[in-house]
Write a structure and sequence with these properties.
GO molecular function: thiamine binding; thiamine pyrophosphate binding
InterPro entries: Ferric-bd
Order of helices and strands: HEHEHEHEEEEEHHEHEHEEHHEHH
Protein name: ABC transporter substrate-binding protein
Keywords: Signal
Number of strands: 13
CATH topology of the largest domain: D-Maltodextrin-Binding Protein, domain 2
GO cellular component, one term: outer membrane-bounded periplasmic space
CATH superfamily of the largest domain: Periplasmic binding protein-like II
Radius of gyration: 25 Å
Number of helices: 12
């Protein structure tokens, strides 16, 4: 009788151990205590910004967000290599919509529009705010314009149009990113050519190149140069200048009369391991909580309930927007970028 009881207890103990091990195995495979399956976010935005967004999502939803940071081109190539076995659930940011437009043809993203953006028009006030088939949605606005060093240039004399940059007084005092390397600068070139034609465009940029004292590969490099007094004027996105200004550096920003204004999107990775988590993170990116974080980083929030931390808002920039022919951009992006290397001496 004792032997039988002892055997029964041993079997029960063994079964309990097996069940506990199985539960532990389930946790290791993805489920977290108190939350759902972790979300993997790919983002080229400032790592601290992406991590802050991830931390806020975790705080609100109890679900872990793993942030993978790299440059836009690196992340796109990574998603291409991972087709068939995607590792990311959601992709946020890339300096505007152009890499997301290209990603549609690469078949690495899929359609999902958060409920809060379902009623948005595809183009509002001349700015494309979401993809026509739902492949991405904008989270904030970026304005391409002129940063200027406030100790070297007054607001009154700072350039107000793209043509103003060719004034002889700016010779040797301008920096702009290299279009052969920077998506920011490629956008500048394509936008000008759409308005004035390619022949006039190449003439303009040869003259602009002759005005420059440096053409760094980095999109943010010129604005940093202006903040340090290495240039009087720099071409870049608005938030770059306002970040330096907030740090006490002598730099401010001019919105040109007509200029590219783009949303910076978020999208769902096709066949990602946690599509429901990816959708929830996209919903979160348009929420007041996430938009307040973006505003704190001097981005222009797209949610009207959140106030911009800069002098720029959706209402006061929309009249400056250039109507971009996205199909033309997609068709000519690589060609124009390659031709820059041979046409601009």
């Amino acid at each position: 009788m004792k032997k039988t009881l002892s055997l029964f207890i041993s079997v029960c103990f063994l079964l309990s151990f097996v069940l506990l091990s199985a539960c532990a195995g389930d946790d290791a495979s993805g489920e977290e205590e108190g939350g759902g399956k972790p979300i993997t976010l790919y983002s080229p935005e400032t790592p601290e910004l992406s991590k802050e967004l991830a931390a806020k999502y975790e705080e609100l939803n109890g679900t872990k967000v793993n942030v993978n940071y790299a440059g836009t081109n690196v992340l796109v190539n990574k998603m291409m290599a991972e087709k068939g076995n995607p590792q990311a659930d959601v992709w946020y940011g890339g300096g505007g919509i152009l890499p997301f437009e290209a990603a549609v043809d690469k078949d690495i993203i899929t359609s999902y529009i958060p409920e809060s953006a379902e009623d948005w028009e595809v183009v509002e006030d001349g700015i494309k705010v979401k993809h026509e088939d739902g492949y991405y949605v904008g989270t904030e606005m970026f304005v391409l314009g002129f940063a200027y060093n406030t100790e070297l240039v007054s607001e009154e004399e700072a350039p107000k149009t793209w043509e103003d940059l060719l004034d002889p007084k700016w010779k040797g005092k301008i920096q702009f990113p290299n279009p052969a390397a920077s998506g920011t600068a490629t956008l500048m070139v394509l936008s000008y050519m759409m308005q004035h034609g390619e022949e006039a465009g190449w003439e303009y940029f040869q003259k602009l190149k002759d005005q420059a004292n440096s053409i760094p590969d980095s999109g943010s490099g010129p604005t940093k140069g202006a903040s340090m007094g290495e240039a009087h004027i720099a071409i870049g996105f608005d938030f770059m200048a306002y970040e330096h200004k907030a740090n006490g550096e002598t730099v401010d920003f001019i919105v040109p009369e007509k200029t590219p204004i783009l949303v910076n999107p978020v999208t769902l990775v096709k066949d990602g391991p946690n599509p429901e988590g990816g959708k929830k993170f996209m919903d979160f990116m348009l929420s007041k909580e996430a938009q307040e974080i973006l505003a704190d980083w001097y981005h222009i929030p797209i949610n009207p309930e959140v106030e911009s931390k800069t002098s720029l808002s959706v209402d006061n920039i929309k009249e400056h927007a250039v109507d971009l022919d996205i199909d033309w951009v997609n068709e000519n992006y690589d060609r124009i970028r390659d031709e820059w290397k041979t046409k601009i001496k």
